[in-house]
Amino acid sequence: MFKVLIIDDEPTIRKGLINIINWKKFQCEICGEASDGVEGLEKIEAYKPDLVFADINMPEINGLEMIKSAKQIVPHSKFIILSGYREFSYMQEAIKIGAFDYILKPSSIEDICEVVKRAVIELKYQRDDQLEAKKLRKCFEESIPILKEKLLYDIIFQININEEEIKEGFELYGIEINEFVMIMIEIDGDSKKKEPYQRQLYQFGIVNTVEEMFAEEFKVEKIVLNNKQIAFIIGTHETVELLEEDVYKKVHSIQQLVESCFDFTVSIAISTKGKDVDELHDKMMECKNALAYRFYMGNSSIILYRDLSGFYKGQDNLAFDGIDKVLCNTIKTGNEEDVVHILGQINDKVIQTNLDPEYIKTFYWNLIYEINMIRISIKNLEVQDKDLSHDISSLYKLIDNATQVKELQDLLEDVAMSVVHRINRYNKKNINQILQKAMDYICENYTMSITLNELAEHTYVSTYYLSRMFKKELGKNFVEYLNEVRIDKAKELLKDNKYKTYEVAELVGIQDPHYFSKIFKKYVNMTPTEYKDSQL
What we know:
This protein is of the alpha/beta class. Helices cover 60% and strands 11% of the residues. It folds into four domains: 128 residues, Rossmann fold; 133 residues, 2-Layer Sandwich (Alpha-Beta Plaits); 161 residues, no CATH class; 61 residues, Arc Repressor Mutant, subunit A, CATH 1.10.10.60. A hairpin with a 4-residue loop joins strand 7 and strand 8. Helix 2 runs parallel beside helix 3, helix 11 packs antiparallel against helix 12 and helix 15 packs across helix 17.
């Protein structure tokens, strides 16, 4: 029902309007009456009427002045002036202040009802518009997380590079990107084997875990990239400094929590710090590149992009689309198995397409040329260089003289496998150099207290990366390797009768004799005293 307020200094007019008109017929009800403009404003403030009848000539405040003030309180209400003034200036002023209609006294009930009917029709349209606007606003507010994620997706993949649109979107969706790091979580293994519902459940679980873990100290924005990868922008509040170590600790906890709750493992990449929205794409590429090196780290890895400084990273020299670029990028990671797979895809694609032979030759030439540029860049990093089985000039002649696709494919495979093998060897050599440096440091300082943090600082990598390399390359963790070094040195010292057991413990960096005896027996299957006696 629409609420009606009648304001007139003549009681007979008020009573007449209240009693003569069938208000229910128009879906209206009288909410009150007032005898002057001041009281009228009070009632308008109190009742917020939809329809107001008002006289012009009233005590205290006239009807026109009252309507001006009332419009500030109920801007969407309909004001109908009921007046004996016939001067055009009054009617003109009434229109100017936004009155719905101007009815002259005396007036027939039919005329008044017709005005009420029109006013109610407008009120209904207005109400419906407001309900629709409210509904749309609710839908928009519910869609903000999706729209926000879509905007961020378009930014990180450089689909949207319009600065004004991005700024407008950030203000609209309440996004603020200052100092941040990006993390990317990838489900290990082939998620396509899982049912769609299960994949969605996994993603939901990962998102909830990350948001809950970072919620108190960080601002988090998520971007679902595909059914295996989810990116998160991790920022801090303005007064808090973003520390990569804090992010790493939470990421490690997230990985453990996910793997304990679900029947799958995840690998997680962490970018270096970014400063604003312009760096989102670069940080996303850092995460993607870091995940590519999972080939060396294995599944269930946490890979910090800054740890990859010793790995080979080629520069894009030509812009290939599709599978061409995929092959080149995969070669740069040194992943031989993936390169073989992509070469097979290229072969199938070329055979399936019925293209001009010259075009196919150009395709292979451009691709081999790009791979050769990768070869040249890795060559400059190696002490000794062995050229490809074919030099570039002879390759061009071989491509030009080729009469079958198989000849071109064989050349591509020869070149690609030669370069990827070289990069693989270079990366593994780098891993071995870091590990060897760590091992040398342990051998030189085993007599002192050595922590994994100290060792990581010495080798310029993260503690996680170093710990992972010990486990992957040596089959044991840092503590186990350190203990082995200390026990080997202890065995040598125990052969000398001048040292007591507790003295040997101190000489190999273990201050607690009981703990020394415990780990000695673990590794040698006898106590230090038993071992000493066995050497007599």
